[in-house]
Give the backbone structure.
Amino acid sequence: MKPLNIAHRGFSGRYPENTLLAFEKAIEAGCDGVELDVHLSADGELVIIHDELLDRTTNGTGFVKDKSLRELRELDASGSFCGQYGVNRIPTLTEYFDLIRGSGILTNIELKTSVFTYPGIEEKTLALIDQYDLRACTVISSFNHYSVLRMQALAPDMIYGFLEESRLIDIHGYAESHHVQAVHPEFHMVDEAFMKEAFKHGLAVNVWTVNTEEDIQEMADLGVGMIIGNYPDICRKVLS
Ligand code: G3P
Ligand code: MG
């Protein structure tokens, strides 16, 4: 089966990452789904941004967790694309769901809970998914596997993946023992042996961040489930 073309932080290769513009452009480019990163603001709103700090991708400074939604919304999140596409605000997860509602687009929500654990983020995320009735087309992942398991306990019927960027011993057996359906490794970790082991343990393999034609083709040939990359246009071309 053909892998799914998942836009990493939206169409982040050509547009400001994790903004509504990047999500819209990814959909226009024909992606099957979107990967995005979620944190909590000081007043408990689910906001889409990659880093704990505002400094790299916005014209603000300091931690996301210390700012209210109102303060976050004043910032321009255009990052390195500053001035090219007007002002792009940090989106809320609600705004993103409004954008994709009814589109059939799959969403890979990455809970960014490794540095700050944001107590309550799993409950809030699930409540919003349910408000939009999107359990069936959402995949939850995190480098914080406790966070994944917290959400899995709340909603065992959803799809979960353990994110991993180091070559752990028996990652497959470990993932299976925690009843997650997928592993999400950095793509250089994946080869035939990795895929064989995944198959043995009944796991899907969803890889990131795959940006070149050659790498996309290699991952497709190996039989991964999702190719998460910054260029959904290139991925679409290779997969078709
Ligand atoms: O979810 C895949 C990928 O996004 C994980 O790494 O740092 O880009 O969020 P990062
Ligand atoms: Mg991510």
